[in-house]
Amino acid sequence: MKNTNNPVSVLMVAIGGYASRYAIELMNEFSSEAIQFRGVVDPFAVDSPCFADVNERCIPVFDTIEDFYMEGNSADLAVICSPIQCHVQQTIRALQNGSHVLCDKPVAAVIQDVDELIRVRDETKKWVMIGYQWSFSRAIQSLKQDILKGLFGAPKRLKTICLWPRGDWYYNRNRWAGKIKDEHGKWVLDSPVNNAMAHFLHNLFYLIGDDISRSAEPAEVTAEVYRVNPIENYDTAACRIFTRDGIELLFYGSHSTLSQMDPVFHLEFEEAEIEFGDCAKEIVATDRKGNQKRYHSPDDCHHFKKLHEAVETIRHPKQVVCGPEAARSQVLCMNGIQELAHSIQEFPPSLIMRNEEDSGYFVKGLDEALISCYQKGLLPGEANYSWISKAGTIDLANYRYFPGGEHQQKKEFAKISNKNHSSEKL
């Protein structure tokens, strides 16, 4: 057990882009008695907005995570916020070198990597947290506790929608945005479902998991995917999922709308309905008699509560509420959607507009269409829009390997290559 009188030693893996916010939090919001910043891993550290602070504090910088450990360094906690395709490899390296890990979402690009990560985690007897910040919020934790107690009866149908327009800057910010594979041939599967909006798909699974550290598992997914931006993968998705318990989940997300709509969800249970977003700026549960219970907003919580909780869990060990098992369902569902995305539907040119103010493309009427589908519980193909793609369905009950689904005997991580691809620019 960690001596609680000593500072927690921390390694930060990546400090560019969003990762810089983790680094700034570590440098500015933790005292020297709370943490000891042992090092930074980032081959492009000099490009980070926080590099001057790192340099001023004389924090050592390494090109790869292997370099850090091979030089005899150690860390109680490795915080990993590198590109998606690096998450599992770097997490495994950290675990094998004695570090616990907070890894940003999503846990991985492909399901076989998640399962290998769980195996190594168990073998090393360390813990891994996945940084879905909503899952660490007081609002979501309180709501999930009440769901587990049966306060609302059994779940029947859950749905969520998020419309976040993203312009050229978003897809040009690094070399892997919107890609299916990176330049080294590693799976990225970057999309709304596996990056910016992964939080909200994960949240549906997480809320109805049968334990505080578990998520419900998808049994099948029916999906439609679309694209307007000049990228490899899709930028718009609508899907219907059924869990192993037969609960229906609906997800709608797009980067190609004119208007923005922050995440909204509606949860239907036998004895109550639960709303968040739109008119409800906090989570509100209303039972059949009209009685209400309020949970505040999951966004009220400190954005980096996950980081503070990781440091605290080193000092005072406790159950990890959002680890690889909880995050696995999002990856499994996303892999199923990607299997169905072999032919991505392009929007008709007559509907594609350019927003010069934001330097991005949008589809005329797409926001209204997706909101209408969300309200009615339909996929676009069921609503007969002119631009629809025929939905496909995939069985995920025994899905263990992307692509193809079958459980392969080979283990991609049996021997982790010494070649580390953390050089991907954020």
Number of helices: 13
Give the CA-based shape.
Answer: globular
Structural class: alpha/beta
Helical content, roughly? 25-40%
Going by CATH, what is the homologous superfamily of the largest domain? Answer: Dihydrodipicolinate Reductase, domain 2
Over the alpha carbons, how many angstroms does the gyration radius reach?
Answer: 21 Å
CATH class of the largest domain: Alpha Beta
| Whole-number total of structural domains | 2
The biggest sheet amounts to: 10 strands, mixed
CATH architecture of the largest domain: 2-Layer Sandwich
- Mean pLDDT, all residues: 94
Q: What is the third-level CATH name, the topology of the largest domain?
A: Dihydrodipicolinate Reductase, domain 2
Gap from first CA to last CA: 34 Å
List unreliable stretches of 5+ residues. Answer: 408-426
Total strand segments: 18
Q: Strand-residue fraction?
A: 15-25%
Quick structural gist:
The protein has 426 residues and is of the alpha/beta class. It has helices at residues 19-29, 51-56, 65-70, 87-96, 111-124, 133-136, 138-148, 168-171, 198-207, 305-315, 324-339, 366-376, 380-383; strands at 8-13, 35-41, 61-62, 77-80, 100-103, 128-130, 155-163, 218-227, 236-243, 248-254, 261-269, 272-277, 280-287, 292-294, 345-346, 352-355, 360-363, 392-395.
